[in-house]
Structure formats: C-alpha cells, structure tokens
Design goal:
Strand content: over 45%
Distance between the termini: 35 Å
Structural class: mainly beta
Number of domains: 1
CATH class: Mainly Beta
CATH architecture: Sandwich
Radius of gyration: 19 Å
Length: about 150
C-alpha cells in the first residue's frame, strides 16, 4: 500500500510540469497611447493553430478631461495571415453571449481590465486584435494607454 501511495504521489508531482509546459503567454500589443495619432492599434497575426484554449487580457488606462474617451476591442481571424475577417468572442462578464466588440473605459477617468476568450471551434490559424480609441486627443489628456496579452494552452 505504501508503494502504491508513493507511486501515485510521484506521478502527480511529475505530471504537473508536463502540463504547464504546454501553456504559452505573450504580448499581443505592447503599451500604446491612443490619442489623435494613432487612434487605433492592430496586433500582428498570432498563429493559434496548435492551441486548444486561447484567452486575451487587455488593460486600458484612461486619461479623460471631458471628451469621454474609450477604447473598443475587436478580433479578426485569418486562414493565411493576409485576408482578415471579423470574429466573435466570449468575455468573462457575458459568459455564453458572443461579443463582436467591447468598449472599455466608458465614463470619466475609468481604467479597466478586460478578459475574454476565443472560440477555437472556428478552427482558424491566425487571430489578431484591434483596439480603437474614441474621443481621444493629443496633449496629455483624453488619451487611453492600452496593453494586451494572450495566453494559450494545448
């Protein structure tokens, strides 16, 4: 019985690193200030063909002096990393409701973290993110700093 318990413990502890090595974490969009130039930022295409689970994280830090600045997040998919089509996604708050975009930082000086995931049932090779600022202006006010990451697991 002791040998069986020891073998089980060894199997559990040795299996954990194997599961963790199949996970990947990367930056989709490095910190970018959305003002009047640029008003939007588009990530490079991310090859997601080898992953079963893909999630995205966006942090938006707003500086607002009256223009009601915001940032809209959208996704696009591609089979060849050249021709892009709009894609839907699920977010943590909406659960099973498909989203085509999400507006962050609505209201005066509101920062926001946003988490959403991509449905791999579409079976596409590439995905990219676009974040577009609205009500933005240059000069240190009415700006949105955005940073986006993704994590994936086989």
């Amino acid at each position: 019985m002791k040998k069986l318990l020891l073998a089980l413990l060894i199997l559990v502890f040795c299996s954990a690193p194997v599961l963790a090595k199949d996970a990947f974490y990367g930056t989709v969009i490095a910190t970018t200030k959305l003002d009047n130039d640029p008003t939007s930022v588009t990530s490079d295409g991310i090859d997601v063909s080898q992953y079963d689970k893909i999630a995205f994280y966006v942090y938006a830090d707003e500086t607002d002096s009256g223009n009601d600045t915001s940032a809209a997040v959208t996704l696009q998919i591609s089979y060849d990393n050249t021709v892009w089509l709009p894609a839907s996604f699920y977010d943590y708050a909406g659960g099973a409701t498909l989203q085509t975009s999400e507006t962050l930082c609505t209201g005066a000086s509101t920062d926001q973290n946003y988490y959403f995931w991509f449905n791999k049932d579409l079976n596409v090779r590439y995905v990219r993110m676009i974040i577009t600022g609205t009500g933005t202006a240059s000069g240190g006010d009415d700006e949105v700093d955005v940073t986006a990451y993704y994590s994936a697991q086989k």
